[in-house]
Amino acid sequence: MSLNQAQAEAVAHKNGPCMVLAGPGSGKTLTIAKRIEYLITKYKVRPEEILVITFTKYAANEMKNRFRQIIGTSGVPVTFGTFHGIYYGILKWAYGLNQANLLLEEEKIQLIKQIAVSMDWGEISDAEEEKDILEELAIEIGNVKNNCYDIQFYESSRYGTNRFRELYQSYEKEKRKLRKIDFEDMLVMCRDLFRSRPDILEKWQKKFRYILVDEFQDVNQAQYDVVRMLAEPENNLFVVGDDDQSIYGFRGAKPGIMMEFRKNYPESKQILLNINYRSTAHIVRGALRVIAHNQERYEKEIISKKKPGETIHVQEVKDPVEESKYVLEKIKEYVAQGLPYHQIAVLYRTNLDARALSETLMEYQIPFTMKEYLNNIYDHFVGIDISSYFHLSQGDYDRKYFLQVANRPKRYIGRDSLSGDKISYESLRNFYCDKDWMMDRIDQLEWDMKMIQNKTPFAAIQYIRKSIGYDEFLKEYAAYRKISLEEIMNVLDEIQQNSREFQTIREWFVHVDNYREMLEKQREKKESKEGVALMTIHGAKGLEYDSVFIIESNEGSIPYKKAKTPDDIEEERRLFYVAMTRAKRKLIISYVKEKNGKDINPSRFVEELLLVV
Hints:
The chain has 613 residues and is of the alpha/beta class.
């Protein structure tokens, strides 16, 4: 296995701190594995003194296997592990912890929910939003620890400083009562242990004299603090990463830590792995053109080992449906040329962006795999409301349909008036016969259902929104629940736009049933590896494909609408860079001109790509 000049220099590094900037496809796994071999065979370092840390068990095993292939045996006692795995091992040794002391993610969510309910957080009571809110709270609690913030001075922008602080402190108190630690506690407790017990720290420093860290751009403050203490006093700390691929800001990772490394270790060696073996020259140059717009980064000159190849193709399409048809045709074309499905990937910013495409691929029976679970839009409460109105308009008078929409908007129809499996307008009138004002409301509901009975689904939804007053109901609902009106309206807009292709409400029902069935089948074959890979850009990190599509490259999607600050925008640009550099031979970037009936702009990153200085 021949190494290029930069790889050879990194492999031969012996003592002291060293930072290797490893661009996409630059052979970093090989470089780390060869350096471990070099330390053992050339510099006679004892294998048990070498610690290799990475972020996932999968990556740790991959690194271990690569090293074994190089060294030719499996019995060499180098320690490979994740940050959490290594730090948990230290805590086990120090405190006698075991699996029973670990708070599982589901338990964490349940504990937060219990505390939030006891604090009377009104928005937690709605099942539709509950999962997202609880997960956001869990992430924010984790980030306080990952970033080593003092909760007394931490300000929560989303949930209010005092309220969040109270929830955080109650969570910590309840967790202690249960004698449990969560995922982030492993880092914080290890940090506290080393700070308070220099004797214990010294023991581990003597055990691990050479430390190698992979994917260094993903470290958070707590992880960095512990690894720095562990590396002292010799500071044989060899870190490998790419600040341009730091995309886990929501978990506390920030490229600033890579910048900090040079300040903490001014004597450190810096090596750039500057040859990309993965992508064609056009793809490498295009990706560098985009990422160069970030301010907080190391300047890099990266060259491709491959020929220029095809230029990056940017495609404008009318809307997500047309985009999905465009991608479908291109996939068929590539497969006809002999490219296997599994060598094609479609990347997007969030799962919602994949809905139209997944529907089209299922319809045309193109096999695909999805790493992340795709929610059924028709199972959202808005989808259930629209479906219930449609059922009533078609004379399906099941109690559940009346119950669902009787007071959406408010009509003051009580549950006690809805008895029996089937409900009729007559039975409602009989119940409210002594209230003229209620009779008017029931008459109006019946009239409205007659009005939408023979409309197209699109026109029927428009009538429900404007004439019946469903849009106004959603505004009040979102305000009362303190949830995002924009997100709810996006769901409603999408359902309405999707309904355009159906002429009757009955056709729409058939489509909804078929879509649900196709989703179920897709979930059943989730483990299958054969098929076009559909995934978020976060999910694609570390992977590579012959041909890559980046869809919905629009403002509001990427950069994501919640990205407000310059730091947020830089992280979104890094995400786009990661997406671009997954492609080996073909890269197709598409953007839509309109979505849910509204005009939208192409992403600023597309403009940066096309802007040749």
